[in-house]
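Hi R.,

Here are the chain sequences for the assembly we discussed:
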Amino acid sequence: MDGSVKERLLAAARALFSEKGFDRTSVREIAGAAGANAASVSYYFGGKEGLYRAVLEEIWEELKRHFGKSMPENRPPMERIEGFVRGLFAFHAANPSLIRLINRELADPTPCFETVIVPHVERIAGILKSSISESVAGGDLREGTDPAIAALLLASMSNYVFLVGPVARRVILDPERSLEGLPEAILTVFRKGVACREA
Amino acid sequence: MDGSVKERLLAAARALFSEKGFDRTSVREIAGAAGANAASVSYYFGGKEGLYRAVLEEIWEELKRHFGKSMPENRPPMERIEGFVRGLFAFHAANPSLIRLINRELADPTPCFETVIVPHVERIAGILKSSISESVAGGDLREGTDPAIAALLLASMSNYVFLVGPVARRVILDPERSLEGLPEAILTVFRKGVACREA
DNA sequence: AATCGTTTAAAACATTTGTTTGCTATTCTA
DNA sequence: TAGAATAGCAAACAAATGTTTTAAACGATT
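And here is the predicted structure of the full complex:
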């Protein structure tokens, strides 16, 4: 075991919460995986929920950094939109089963939702919506496009696969199919769906 | 209270499971809402999971009937595709917060997943994919369209809003915006995204 | 070396969970 | 009508959970 108990708890909690969700993970299980005692969860994080909150915040910080790179502010809006989709897929590739933690929170909010999730989602949604607005103004997307709806549909396509998980992926996609071409497919559908000129 | 205890349990369980999910709903809570005793859950359904399974099966039967009407087999494939989207939205409108139960199961499978969810999803996915294939063959959708990916993206757009629930809808869409025009927006994006001629 | 605050573990604790056990009332049947 | 089966409930039960308590080990500082 390397790292402090606190760090190990955080890492173990992250893995277990990601895989099974908040409710189906017990503090004893986390502590066991971290090679620590169950009491240390309350000691360091004030309880199970505090640990969960810490995990969520850690993830959002990473996602923020990630989007900071894939959606550069100084680039044209259409590039930021593409960066959103590609960045999301790349992040997932680097952290399998992790986005499910966030999405699970979107589907079934815990008390953390309002304090840690909403602000971050609002931020990303804001960037996405304004990028779309700018693209409309700049003539890259069709006049009359509703930024909120367009953002929602883009987020839908980009998130759903990860949300429904490998099991459901198996049912809809072919069993051994990779997600290789999906970001491009999404962008193509998005572009043709709301664009007024070919990319 | 009307109906037998068994029926009342089923109705209460359906409402509570839909709203809060399996883990966060206790049998005492269900029994209380049904005006019955907690023991009756084990008595009639063999346990909490049995009751949950019964609820899921009931919902799928309804959804099946619903899709049977909105996706008529004797109509052209593009109409079935439209029927999928409109039917899903209509079903949701009639049963708010209910599709979340199914989607929650997709995101976090319980033991019921393999036995009750997979077969039904496979069925719908099959219909969707073959409708898309036929549309491609018939010239309504672009040559080279991948039916599996197209079906996945359509399902993504149609399901995500309901999955993330009212709370997250608030964040992405405007607060008081209705879902009125969404099915048409989805179909437009889908058509333009993978169609080769305007609808 | 003694003392203080921090860290860790084991055990005890209080709750909540789903389920089972008896027992009572009702309903159907012979 | 007598008896058996079913329906329903309150209470008891066992297991699991998150948390608190208690105490021991450790490390730095004086």
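Chain B touches chain A through 48 residues (CB under 8 Å). Residues 4-5, 36-40, 43-44 of chain B lie near DNA strand D (CB under 10 Å from a C1').

Let me know if anything looks off.

Best,
T.
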